[in-house]
Amino acid sequence: MTIEMASAGSREIRRLPPGLKLAGALLFTIVVVALPRRDWLDYGLAGCILLLAMIWGRAASWKLVRRLILLEPFAAGVAAMSLFQQGGLEIFLSLLAKSTLCLSCVLLLGATTPFSQILDVMRRRHLPGLLVTTLALTYRYLFVLHEEMHRLRRARQSRAMGRRHADSWRGQAGIIARLFVRASERAGHIYAAMCARGWKS
Amino acid sequence: MNALEVHNLRFSYPDGVEALRGLSFTVAEGERVGLVGPNGAGKSTLLWHLNGLLPEILPKEPAVTVFGIPLIQANLERIRAEVGLMFQDPDDQLFCPTVAEDVAFGPQQAGLSKVEVRQRVKSALAQAGACNLENRLPHHLSQGEKRRVCLAGLLACKPRLLALDEPTSDLDPRGRRELKALLKSLPITQIISTHDLELVVELCPRVIVLDAGQIAAEGPTVEIFSDEPFMLKHGLERPHILLHHHPHPAGVQNNKA
Amino acid sequence: MHIPDGFLDVKTAVAGAALAAAGLGLSLREVRRQVPPARIPLIGLGAAFVFAAQMLNFPVLAGASGHLVGATLSAILLGPSAAVLVMSAVLILQCLLFADGGLTALGANLFNMALVAPWSGYALYRLLRRVCGNSLRGRLMAASFAAWASTVCAAVCCAGQLALSGTVAWGTALPVLALVHIAIGLGEGLITALVLAGIARTRPELFAPTETAQPIETSTSVLQTIGFGLLLSLGLAAFVAPFACSWPDGLEWAAERLGFARAAADKPIFHSPMPDYQWPGVATNGWGTAITGMAGALAAFLIAWVTARWLAPASNDSKTTVPPAVTEQDERKSANDN
Q1: Residue after which a domain boundary falls, among A124, A148, A167
Q2: Structural domain spans, chain C
Q3: Least confident of A31-40, B206-215, C13-22, C231-240
Q4: Residue B131: DSSP 8-state
Q5: Cβ of C99 and A71 within 8 Å?
Q6: Tell me: the pLDDT tens digits for A141-195?
Q7: Is residue A168 part of a domain?
Q8: The pLDDT of residue C282
Q9: Residue B243 — very low, low, confident or very high, per pLDDT cuts 50/70/90?
């Protein structure tokens, strides 16, 4: 699974204020979720709106579709539980419709809005500073730690005798343990770097 | 006035290991001084003492004075504005989600207005040759690009002393040449801790050799580096640049990096 | 356990969001109060760590693999309030970056995985430590079982939310989700113990025997405990209690009396293939799930006990704590790790 979402979209959609895109996505998902179960017409309408947005924004891409296909089986699996009740098929189909619509909407948002802009929106809306700082640091370092994790894995695999040993639970857990120790040390250095440039906590 | 005065600096880790054993030296304003020594000599630890990151509780009688300002708790903010410390791992220093945010961090923390912050960011990026990186994401940058952005982040705070910890350790030859040219172009006092002895010869007329927390030698770079027995004794060696030097051809400039 | 959009109705989503917001607010307050500034970046790095750790595969059978969730692990390593922040950051980023978990369901997901999981795991860990002892073996055992239990607790809340929304009948949601997570939780317990043992081997001060020695939160205040206890109780009351008290049966009886039920059953557009299907092999849903739960708990306890004995052969007490050092000392230690 690739970490990053595609950065796609026409200039127009990327120029739109991120706050507007976020609010739009939120509104869309809330409305779709609130729609009555049998409201197939409105589902279709919502789908058309989304499709139009994707076409106008030139954000309809194979990457988006591939992501959607990757996520759908999970939603379908959970939705399958709904079949075991009165009116279950109807519920199941409406679940699939709603979740597909909302998934596509969030994927569209992710593809056309860099996360740093979403953080800006959060800051402007006066969300707690500690939360925004944490989200910013998480976003910044999840790629770094992901790479470190891969490096630790590759080092381990090159020393392991055969596949079974390479994937052993103890070995993988050892990687996670080392990753935590490294993360802890790096956090100390980051704090020092922040202080060195005058950070006032 | 000296840029940096260190007098009898001592430091021990919490587990009792003595890292610095009474260091004393000065750095004149505008000078570029190299800091070399084997691993574990205390080079990084020394640099962390220059802007008060260590010790955790600053002593009442400071061992460090920066541009005449004694390094005590009350002066910490002033000193950190004067000293720009480049960390060994650029990923430790580049902690914001975008380049622009990171370069703006220092000026923002200093309480400058939005307009002033914007100006500082632009001029710092220009000075560091990183204007084209402004809207990039840190994890997309090469090591050389990350180093430039780190430097820009420091320059945005307008420091008068730059302390650099292994600035060329993870750079390819081109990145190294570019960083060397950049450091040469900056008129700021610099203290460069590095294993790259050739860099020291090329940039620093004066060098301090550190070993086991003490100064083994201090003086003109070429003179000290030419003493092969001395260099070998302290875990170093005579750099080949003293025997042979050829200027690398200008070649095709890579505008990307 | 990430609930997608559309699976929760508006009222459940709102309830989840309200509880999550309250819990997050309380955690932020506690972290600001208790965690020294030097440890603040560790929360963000901790979340990045959980993110990366969740991507490692733990092969189960041919093809299938499990993953660490990390809620209890975070709570033990960083303290419960910091863990709430850590898991919240992970879930928010998973939602916005990867559409993993719905936007409207974010509140409910945060409640389950960022509030219930870390807090129930931590509380159980503290409780069990009194029984198992403060030796490394005792702590590993407590941590392993707590991790299992926290996974099941979160799953039960998730089932309750789905049932409350009318998406899945309680009679299906609870057995399926509980069963699946009773099994998944065993993996979580084992992995948590393995990771903590690995950390204890290289940096014992990061997995300290007592709270005062922990590198992040120094103690849990009374307000914190009461506040979270209240929030969790409210959540359980909203999402689980109605079903545990067989309230829907009561509602059905009342609806029948008042003629609603007939109207609701009128003219469905689609006919469900399996209306009123009972979970196979169980006379009454409640008993089946309870028995499975008890069996799972026993299995979790056994695994915890065996794992702890295997990972900590002698009952060695942890060394006195040493605060993490910086720069060259770190590098020396990292070099020793590799």
Answers
A1: A124
A2: 10-242+286-313
A3: C231-240
A4: G
A5: yes
A6: 999 999 999 999 998 888 877 666 556 888 889 999 999 999 999 999 999 999 9
A7: yes
A8: 40
A9: confident
SS3 (DSSP) at B22:
strand
Residue C58's pLDDT is: 84
Q: Which residues of A touch B103 (CB under 8 A)?
A: none
Q: Minimal Cα distance from B15: which residue of C?
A: C322
Q: How many secondary structure helices (H) and strands (E) does chain A include?
A: 9, 0
Per-residue pLDDT at B70:
93
Print the domain residue range for A22. Answer: 11-124
**Structural domain count, chain A:** 2
Q: Which of B18, B43, B44, B137 to mutate to test the interface with C (most CBs of C within 10 A)?
A: B44
pLDDT tens for residues B11-61?
A: 998 888 999 999 999 999 999 999 999 998 999 999 999 999 988 888 888
C23 touches A: beta carbon within 8 Å:
no
- Picking from C300, C320, C313, C319, the residue whose alpha carbon sits closest to that of residue C142 is C300
Gap between the Cα atoms of C82 and C76, Å rounded: 10
Using CA atoms in the order B28, B29, B30, B33, what is the torsion angle rounded to 10 degrees? 30
Query: Is any Cβ of chain C less than 8 angstroms from the Cβ of B54?
Result: yes
| Interface contact B95-C41, CB threshold 8 A | yes
CA dist C336 and C319 (Å) reads: 18
Interface predicted TM-score (ipTM) of this complex, two decimals? 0.92
pLDDT at B133 over 60: yes
Answer yes or no: is pLDDT of C97 > 80: yes
Instruction: List, as own/partner pairs, every contact residues C122-126 make where C-beta atoms lie below 8 angstroms and the sequence separation is at least 24, other chains included.
Output: C122/C72, C122/C75, C122/C76, C122/C79, C122/C80, C122/C83, C122/C146, C123/C80, C124/C149, C124/C150, C125/C72, C125/C75, C125/C76
- The pLDDT tens digits for A89-140 are 888 888 888 999 999 999 889 888 899 999 999 999 999 999 999 999 999 9
Q: What is the SS3 assignment for B12?
A: strand
Position C330 scores a pLDDT of 43
Q: What predicted TM-score, i.e. pTM, was given to this entire model?
A: 0.86
B13 contacts chain C (CB < 8 A): yes
Q: Per the CB < 8 Å rule, is A193 touching B93?
A: yes
Fold of C10-242+286-313: Arp2/3 complex 21 kDa subunit ARPC3 (1.10.1760)
Residues in chain B within 8 Å Cβ distance of A200: 109
Whether residue A105 sits in one domain with residue A25: yes
- Is the domain of A120 the same as that of A179? no
Cross-chain Cβ contact B139/A192 below 8 Å: no
User: Is the Cβ pair C273, A133 closer than 8 Å?
Assistant: no
In-domain check, residue A102: yes
Residues in A touching C198 (Cβ below 8 Å): 173-174, 176-178
Percent of chain B with pLDDT over 90: 81
Domain assignment present for residue A6? The answer is no
Neighbours of chain C (3+ CB pairs under 8 A): A, B
Which of B77, B95, B110 comes nearest A193 by C-beta?
B95
Same domain, A87 and A145: no
Instruction: List CB contacts (< 8 A) between B40 and chain C.
Output: 328, 332
Q: Using one digit for the tens of pLDDT, what is the confidence trace for B148-174?
A: 999 999 999 999 999 999 999 889 998
Both A141 and A101 in one domain: the answer is no
Residues A115 and A72 in one domain: yes
Dihedrals phi, psi of A182, to nearest 5 degrees: -65, -40
Distance CA A88, CA C273 (A): 7
